[in-house]
User: What shape does this take?
Amino acid sequence: MWFILGWIVSIVTFPGVIVHELAHQLFCRLARVAVFDVCYWRFGNPAGYVVHETPRTAYQSILISIGPFIVNTVVGGLIAAPSALPVLQFNSGTPLDYLLIWLGVSIAMHAFPSTGDAKSIWQSVMSKPGFSMAKVIAAPIVGLIYIGALGSMFWLDLFYGIGVAFLIPKLLIAIFS
Amino acid sequence: MCSAALDRSNIQFDSDGIPRQKRSAPVCSTCGGANVEPDYAAPLCGPCRESLAARPIPIGILIAAGVVVICMLCAFVQFPKALRVGIAYDRAQRFEAAGNYVNAEKNYQQVVTAYPDSTDTLAHLGLAAYHAGDYDVAADAFNKIGQNELDNDVADQVNAAITDLNNKAAAQQDPNAPASGAPATNAPATNGAGSDAPASN
Assistant: This one.
């Protein structure tokens, strides 16, 4: 039941998967890390992936792994936020508003890095012996990724996407009014 | 490919047949070139790494990304209006709560201009205008609500205001009735809190 539901969500929110993998690829390009294979969307688990070489530095690894979190959150929020107000607050949404909300929530809910990303950071950072700042930065990030992955079993990613779409305009209004 | 030119007499081989020189100096796993970049896990030369890092994006994915960018532009165009109206609504609510009905009415008016079908905003505009003594605007706003649903609390307030506006209008039309002093010239087309009063949910 949950498996089928997960598949349906993956199909319905496919733009988010594409943006997630594109963000991985973009950050690989920025970090000059070789990409061997990319799948932007497919039926299956994971719904998309980017196979790349082990980055030269731990910071590159962190950047590539959390890049989609930044990109998906910003893009999803920017797309959905202006349409969230007329739909939620004023019950005056147009079909374009609903389209933008679907797209924005779809993109934002796929912001969470996967456990594969967490493993990639862990391997890259912890493989080097001794103390480093990268380890101090990476450890909580890896922890948060695993918490996010655990939360995704209870639709935390969906709630995150909805939160990004609907809370950002509320926050902006509270700041500017 | 050019094995004919290779002089094998000076090359030392390991037991597995791989030249010892090759073990000590790795070659690019893509092009076989000797200039493998150091400090990387994958043995790749500079141009091959550049090429793989800048792996081309399929045309279909580029089109999808273009659609997302177009949607972002649409959202950008809508954003100032949405933010301005949201701020106006937030201010209106605060003015209304503070009893500053004139400013509340002004701000609700901005919202209704942008979203004329917003039932809740029309109700609040009507109430703010009613309390500010702007009965024409109040009556007009209440008429536009029609049979749309409102929160119980707001619906009760609207019904009470409609009843009062109707009483004022009736008093003005009847010359023998005691003067109410209210210039309610355009009361809503409802009869008290009767059939045309907004429904509550």
